[in-house]
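User: Structure tokens for both sequences below?

Assistant:
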Amino acid sequence: MNFYDYVRNIQNFPKAGINFKDISPLLADKHALANCLSELVVLVGSQKIDKVAAIESRGFYFGTLLAHKLEAGFVPIRKPGKLPFKTIKEPYELEYGIDVLEIHEDAIEEGDRILLHDDVLATGGTARAACNLIERLGGKIVQCNFILELEFLYGIKKLQDHSVCSFLKF
């Protein structure tokens, strides 16, 4: 299956100068959706995963599915004010501004083997912030797992201390 056919470019979104990679067509096609999940599982290989942590909101599309397939728990990493229990916070820069991520302070136990998932690796700021949150709670990041990577933004440099996998490269 050619997954590139299911990613459309949206010019000037969310602001002028950004060429957004939209995976909505992939999500809408049942075969592409199932095959994408299979590809993400293949990236993990035989590694033991205790929990899948996924970044709001597009990371949730496959994060819970991956957790189910890998027989692991699921941990949401969200923007401020979205989680109901006590949280820890981590600020980060992204290609079009500054934001903050939060995670429940009891979401990860010391030594948990974590798969971090998001749809896109761009500048790496969001993923780096998520890694920092996971590690502050004592989690061990087994892999940072993405559907697609925007190689020209060099986000992988911010994750050099982790295994990073994606199956679509732009």
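Moving on to the next sequence.
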Amino acid sequence: MSHPVILALTAGEPAGIGPELCLQLSGEPRSAGIVVVAAKALLAERAKQLGLQVALHDWQPGEAPQTRAGHLSVCQVDGCQSTVAGQLDTGNSQYVLDTLTVAANGCLNGDFDGMVTAPVHKGVINDAGIAFSGHTEFLQALCGVERVVMMLATDELRVALVTTHLPLKDVAAAITPKRLTQVTRILNADLKTFFGIQQPRILVAGLNPHAGEGGHLGREEIEVIEPTLDQLRQEGIQLTGPLPADTLFTPHWLNDADAVLAMYHDQGLPVLKFQGFGRAVNITLGLPIVRTSVDHGTALDLAGTGKADAGSLHTAIRVGEHMARSRRAAKAGEPS
């Protein structure tokens, strides 16, 4: 357990605030080893623009990352075409995806204990002719797993999603017994592995208002959700629900829960972001690697101004380090 954790930190969209958030880390103490996966020239240019004195060191697998104030280790990724803060360039799209690939492969081969991602801009990647729906789906394909789960968390609340980036009109059809079973099993297993919770207690939201109100406001609870939860309870998973989403997020229920499972993106995440925006972390469960991310976007209007807040990045790093240590303890059969 004394072996230091090494996390890969992808710098995200070059025109956004990701590069400067990475640079901000150099002036603060770090318990985990951080390797920024990016174009070194991009970081140097942004540091010059912001008036930051940061020594950038080339990093190779097997080396201990820099932890001294004013120093950062960088895993060089080529192909960054333009580095103008606030100005998107489709020519950088492949470079952005290459940083994710390098970081993820480094996790898979053991060079890194996990990866933390600064925000990317989905629109400009798609404008470049590359189909991209987000970090979560990209890493799912790269790691070759059938199902992943998006979970956002603060110190007080964890919310996982059955469906993620779908139009609202498609959500009901996507909530199938297979999907709900896979997502719930992943959530239960990873709460144990990555968070050291021996018997997770999970609250499950219904899909419809009032959880369907006995079938009068929709039958998805009766026909899909309730039977599936009953089968999962027989496996020993502690599930409460389906509960009406408008009363689930209250102390009466949350005080005795380790996580909430929401049916769709805007059912659970507005509550969490209202409760903790700027200090929340986006976590991908179901991968063979640790992956956390900030809870915000590229903030093009703030890029290059020095006003970007690194609070969410600090949370993502702290949670990533904790998850890596918990998984290490679980593999060794030790308490986390």
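User: Anything stand out in the second?

Assistant: The chain has a mean pLDDT of 94.
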